Amino acid sequence: MLASGITLGVPGQEELFEYTALAEEQGLESIWVGESWGRASVPVLTKLLERTETIDVCSGIFNIYARTPGLVAMTANTLADSGDGRFRIGLGTSGPAVIENFHGVEFDRPLRRTREYIEIIQGLLAGDRIDYDGEIFELSGFALDMNEYYECPIYVAAMGETNRQLVGEFADGWMPLLVPNTGLDDALGAVKRGADKGDRSLDDIDVTPWIPTCISEDDPAAAREHARSLIAFYVGTMGDFYANAAASFGFGEEADEIRAGWEKDGQTGAEAGVTDDMLASFGACGTPAEAAESFEQFQEAGADSPVAYIPSRWADSDIIRETITNL
After folding, report:
1. 3-state SS class at 211
2. How far apart are CA 35 and CA 216, in angstroms?
3. How far apart are CA 298 and CA 300, in angstroms?
4. What are the phi and psi torsion angles at 82 (to 5°)?
5. Per-residue exposure over 48-58, b if at least 16 CB sit within 10 Å of its own CB, e if not
6. Which end of the chain has fewer CB atoms within 10 angstroms, the N or the C?
7. Count of domains in the chain?
8. pLDDT tens-digit series, residues 133-148
């Protein structure tokens, strides 16, 4: 098996159910369901747990501004209870554009908020009565009113160095998007420093990079272009965040070309800036053999449980199914 799980971006709900059933048939371990400013993820996660038996259903991601940590703990415990423990919490900061312009909340102190979020959720899911005196959250006297407690693992979509250290110190998993196989080993250095600070081992953190993935034996060129589209979209449209991350891994010229291409000619222009070298470093695409080689490179660089990010926005249903069956 090449990947441990899948995420699909924004397919229709029924298509998501179909692809998840196929992933479960293939023996994949997890499905990660995103949430941005469209469909809310919790009803979808609930339906997925009802329709599956073995695969873990995971939030990918709950941003740390739209919900309180208490609400996340209640939601996670409820979802885990309905799915015999098959729920994992994926957390992240999202970005200022979404948090401030959609949710209307100030994007302040993301690192401190992430730390307090994790500590509070872990305590509540352990069944503890919480008395928490943080810099952001002050809580007193409450525990989850549940018959059973599920200590759901917490994964954090951390990119910056300090945030990666925080993952190593407090979280159960690291869930980065668009980290190249050429840079994953170095990026893990910050996670290890955090683990050392927390008297933990790197083995205690599940390294779960999301890898742009599209596979086709019959049309590998199309598969590569779909993965290229996904990389171009994130670097070209998501503010400075992913462009700066790409630059930090040695792809600064490419990031500039992608963003300039987006400004000039939208998605098509951005795709023109994604070089084959960048595609090979960030993605796993082409023929099944080519994708297998890419996943092996990620695993050699330190990935424990890579997640295939399938570009459902661009790929048709046939190639999505072929990708899943080749994982």
Report:
1. strand
2. 28
3. 5
4. -80, -15
5. bbeebeebbbb
6. N
7. 1
8. 999 999 999 999 999 9
